[in-house]
Amino acid sequence: MLKRISLGVLFLGFVLLTQSIFVVKETERAVKLRFGEIVEYDVEPGLHFKLPVVNTVRKFDARILTLDAAPQSYLTSEKKALTVDSFVKWRVSDVAKYYTTTGGDEERLRRLLIQRVDAGLRNEFGTRTVKEVVSGQRDELMDKLSNQLNLIAIDELGVEVIDLRVKKIDLPPEVSESVFNRMRTERERLAKELRAQGNEVAEKIRATADKDKTIILADAYREAEEIKGNGDAIATATYANAYSKDPEFYDFTRSLKAYQSTFESKSDILLINPDSDFFKYLDDSKAQNK
Questions:
Q1: Where are the alpha helices (DSSP H) in the chain?
Q2: pLDDT at 289 (0 to 100)
Q3: Average pLDDT, stretch 158-183?
Q4: Is the Cβ–Cβ distance between 93 and 154 less than 8 Å?
Q5: Residue 124: CB partners within 8 Å, gap ≥ 6?
Q6: pLDDT class for 50, splitting at 50, 70, 90?
Q7: Closest to 74 (Cα-Cα) out of 186, 170, 191, 187
Q8: pTM of the shown model
Q9: Sign of the C-alpha dihedral, residues 283, 285, 286, 290?
Q10: Which residues pair with 159 in a beta bridge?
Q11: Predicted confidence (pLDDT) per residue in 263-287, tens digit
Q12: Are 162 and 87 in contact (CB under 8 A)?
């Protein structure tokens, strides 16, 4: 009997000990409650003790979490509807306020955070044009919204907003086709304008090249004719000088060239008077008379 009581006491002690010990991980934030009232606001990571039944511990994920909001439709300052798909990076910063506001229900926190993101995007998109929110001021808009949402989330929800980004901005299906047609028309107009400018520049380049070509050819022809004239003058002067020194030798060499040219083809037939000067240096009798 005593042994059974001892075993029962040991078992009860073990149960009480396991109920009195809890561990908070590095990736967690926790609050300790006493009958539902917070008595320790931010329990540090490690091994801790509590009173069974009296104390309860609520743990929350302390890592950076992602809230992927459903795409929403917003109007720009031009009254054009845009479908915006966004997401938020957040984490718990004030555990007590987070628990007080949401009761530790992450789904409730998501709904509250989505409401504030939706309100912020609606206000900012309403003061900007489509061009500004799509390209020109997109990064500036996201940074501004992240800072604004972070201040609200810390003050009201006890969470820190790390980043707010827009994944995609689309036009509603009913207006997408008309917008794409306008964009296509504008791009075709711009392409035609650029082609026209390119053709104009090309024509100017061709005209300049043709003019330069004509000038270069004329200059080259003039220079060639001058060189050829100078060469002919020098050759004529050389021939005249040589001829004046030995006319007989000059006649002899010219006759040899004439013979070579005349008798080059064996099939040619020449009818020439034997007394012609052509045979001046082939006729022995004339040569001896000379």
A1: 2-20, 95-102, 106-125, 130-131, 138-156, 173-245, 247-262, 284-289
A2: 47
A3: 78
A4: yes
A5: 133, 141, 144, 145
A6: confident
A7: 170
A8: 0.52
A9: positive
A10: 92
A11: 666 666 666 666 666 666 665 444 4
A12: no
